[in-house]
Amino acid sequence: MTDPVAFDVVSEGLAEVHRRLLPVTDGEVASYIPQLALADPDDFGIALVSMGGHRYEAGSSRTEFTIQSVSKPFVHALALAELGLDEMSRWVGNEPSGDAFNAISLEHGTGRPANPMINAGAIATTNLVPADSPAERSARILDALSAFAGRRLAVDEEVYRSEAATGDRNRALAYLMHAAGSLRTDPVEAAEVYFRQCSVLVNTVDLAVMGATLANGGVNPVTREQVVPEQVAVEVLSVMATCGMYDAAGDWLVRVGLPAKSGVSGGLTAASPARFGIACYSPPLDRTGSSVRGVVALRELSRRFGMHLMHHPAPGADTVTAAGAGARAASGRERAAADRELLAGAGDRVALVAARGEVDFPAAERLLHALAGAVPVVPGWVVVDLDQVTSVNPVAGLMLGRALDRIAASGHRVAVVGGSAVGAADDAWGGAAVRHARREEALAWAEEALLHELRSLPH
Ligand SMILES: NC(=O)CC[C@H](N)C(=O)O
After folding, report:
1. Where does substrate bind (predicted)?
2. What is the pTM of this model?
3. Which of 20, 102, 302, 335 has the smallest number of Cβ neighbours within 10 A?
């Protein structure tokens, strides 16, 4: 029997990066929260989770640590799912602050924190999660983080106490926001809920699953649970891309090109939309508060696996499989010599355009361009074969519908073949088109009508 591990080149890639970066000893383990100073600087874990829910890992990927600021995007997701983007944005901005994570980055006048990834914004966001008491709020947050991770998580009470004992700066931020009217709950309680959220224990694989859930439109790829709506995942990833790495966010986007979030315990998660969640854990931090090994590892992995968001994606399969008029659009029916002759003289009055696969905005643009080139110059018949189309997204359906309506309005008769996947787009073309089950039928329908017209013309 073949050992499936022998084919695991993904884990091999992770192991190679891990081996190469293990000797890196730059950075300092965070000590302003005393309990964090006890972390082992040699711990180094890497994990990658695919949209199929497959997990790949290297190093100390199962070592537990407190989530710290990596919790912020996930609690932001929970608050967004409850409040919606407009209401959220009234309380917390979406602008990169360019400041350190613990900066007093509050908007002049309103006291609104710049974004939900810095401490001030995170404390405000946490306390926007609807609940009747701080305990209930903490419980809801723990539930949400667990759903993102796909397993039941717990709070490290010692780290929580250590952070609460030394958390005056965060309390001060809460007081400032409370005074300015941007935090409505009690400042001390607000900070406590935030400290408990930061003290939730995770491992590197959990962080990768959490990132993968955002990359997968809010559906946890391991448990298949829809944790937050897809739109919320899109909004959270956007904020991660611009604010997730604090005052290093710009450089990060250039070099790694993925939405990400780091934390002071050394955790780091990144999301490659529709592809992977990737996470690292290594406690020594750079001056911006992100894991030194984590940052370099993500840089290498992004390059190695071609994950930079701004990369030109590989083109999909051709959408348009046939486009033309005349002979190429013939139905193949047996016909009398006289009819064949008639058709040969007027074959360019029947056009065929066929498409396949998923039709989204760019694919619809290609299809419409092909239609424009194939439509007869004099009133004729246009057969659009969508039998091999697997899906049409709403915007593409609208575009196609409008184009077919226009073609019909300019005097052509339109037939649409198959396209059971087209579904919603059906309403879009408002019955301007005749439906046929097969391409040959539609072409024969067009030819019969054309012949009928030609035969009645004086020779
Ligand atoms: N960047 C971080 O991870 C900060 C989280 C930490 N709990 C704090 O508030 O200071």
Report:
1. 69, 119, 163, 170, 194, 246, 264
2. 0.87
3. 20
